[in-house]
Amino acid sequence: MQAALDDIHHFLPCRTPDAWIRNALENQELLLIDHAHCEKKAASTALSLMYRYVDNPDLLHRMSRLAREELRHFEQVLSIMKKRDVTYGHLTPARYAAELRREVRAEDPGRLVDVLIVGAIIEARSCERFASLAPHLDDTLADFYTSLLKSEARHYRDYLVLAEKAAGEPIKDRTATFLAIEKRLIEMPDTEFRFHSGPVAD
Question: What PANTHER family does this protein's entry cite (predicted)?
Answer without folding.
Answer: TRNA 2-(METHYLSULFANYL)-N(6)-ISOPENTENYLADENOSINE(37) HYDROXYLASE, TRNA-(MS[2]IO[6]A)-HYDROXYLASE
